[in-house]
Structures are given as C-alpha cells and as structure tokens.
Specification:
The chain is an alpha+beta fold. Among the domains are: 5-52, Dna Ligase, domain 1 (2-Layer Sandwich); 77-181, PH-domain like. A hairpin with a 2-residue loop joins strand 1 and strand 2 (13-19). Helices cover 21% and strands 36% of the residues. It has helices at 20-28, 48-52, 166-175, 200-223; strands spanning 5-10, 13-19, 37-40, 45-47, 77-87, 97-104, 108-117, 120-129, 133-139, 142-147, 157-162, 180-181.
Amino acid sequence: MENPVYHVVLEGRTLGPYDRRTIVGMRIKKTLTSDNTLVDAAGARLTVGELVHGQRPNPPFQPSRGEGTGSYSVIQGTHAASLLEVEGKGYEIPPFKGEVEVRVQTRFLRLAGRFRDGLAWKEDRVKFPLEDIAHARLRGSVVDLWVRTAAAQQGMQRLTLEMFTPEAAGELTEKLTHSAPWPGSEPLAGRVQGGNGLHPMLWAVVVGSGVLVSTILVWVLTRR
C-alpha cells in the first residue's frame, strides 16, 4: 500500500510533502504543534494531532455553486488567513481555529475552516455577499471588514482577518470592489485616487527649493 504524504500549512505557506513518520518526528521535536494543519494529496485537511492519533482526514470542500443557479461560481482569488475577531451581531460565524481559507467568488466572500466542537474538530463555511461588505480597512497584514446584516440594526458586523503578509492583505481588498475604505483609514491597496495634485509636503519641498535657488542667484549677482 502506498505511503500517503501530506503538506504542512504554516502562515500561508505550504511545505512538504512529508510522510506520517516524518511528521510524527517533527511533532516530537516540537517543530510542529498538534494544531498545525496538514493537507493530503486529495486536498483533505486534518491536524497534526489527528494524524498522530490515527484519525482519517475529512473530505475536502466541494466547489461552491452560485446561489440560485446551476453553475459554479467563478473563483477570483483564494487566500490563507486567520480569523482574529468577530464583533457585532449578524452572521453565525463558527469560532474558527488556526488557518482559514478566504475565497473571493463572483458574488460572495467565503470563509472556510475548522473549529472545536467538544472533543472533535468540525469543518464549516460562511458566505458574505460582496455587495454587503460596506467597508474595509488595511492595517499592515490585517484586514478589517464591516458587513451589513439584517440582524445588526444598530450597526454592522466587523470581521478582523490576519492575512500573514501586507501583500496578501492588499490583494484581498483589491478584489472587494463594493467596499469603501473605512472613514479615516488609509486608501485600499490598488485603488486609484482622484486628483493629480501633488501632496502638500511635496509642494513645500518644491517651493523651498525655488526660494533657495533665488537666494543663491541674488547673492551671486550682488557679489559682482
């Protein structure tokens, strides 16, 4: 029987493949923790702890179909992330642990991941209509999203995602074309800003340089 191999997912990177014996050795040496995620050749996921205890990986998620249609949704981008915080009422979001998959589809943003249910691990997903993601904010590798929901009559539900790198965070916000920057925050990556004027600080440098050149010319002329 063929010895199965697994890839290790660490901070958005995929390492390997490694066989079970190698992974167990890495766990003993504390190179990996029991909560680290593994992916087998079929795309099914499990933790290092589950592999060590002989559990089988759960089958991978099937491709998502568009809401109300028989066609598959077009995937515009897939990112690895970690769900840091959920604030406010609205969507029922499982308490995902470890790495989650953030997938931007034609009309939806989908989060998929694993969470603890008693002593067992379960997998689930939740979809947010792109047009309901009203605002986004970039903070380095962190992305905050504000989602309109029918249940949140006194405000919006906020999700905070750790995207592991500023580049990945910028790529995600570029795809959220319905979302405006959170008031007072920096412009979203890749968004073209209106106006071609120079920044006030650049104007100050230009004016200062002109004054300095004029002063030097006057001094030279008066010395003749």
